[in-house]
Amino acid sequence: MSKVTVKRQRVRRPVNKPLRWRKEPRKKVLPSWIPIASAVTLVLMLVLTVNYRAYSEFSREAQTFEELNSKIQQATTENLSMQEEIYYLRSDPKTIEREARKYGLARSKEQVSRAGDTDKAEQSAKPAFPTRK
Fold it and tell me: Which of 20, 83, 91, 114 sits at a 20 to 30 Å CA gap from 68?
């Protein structure tokens, strides 16, 4: 005789498994807009960095431009005044005489005295200061 054995099927009972063993769909940790917002933020930071650098270079160049323009204006003004002085030295006798007197030149029959020099008459005319006893 042959024995037939019947296998018993196990009845599955619901078991309270811990959360890590359950096969439930996982909840999303991050909302879907976070990666987009972070990408936009990074692009914005990159754009601001490049623009700030360009702005600082532009402001430096503008400052240099202003300095050079002021130097050009000063040189032009000086050049015009020298051209005017040259014109008067060539044509105006009073200007020529004034410049000649600066160098100690005088017309004939004139005597030139300088501010630091004193004549004998001036030395004798100086009063002596009294001294205290």
Answer: 83
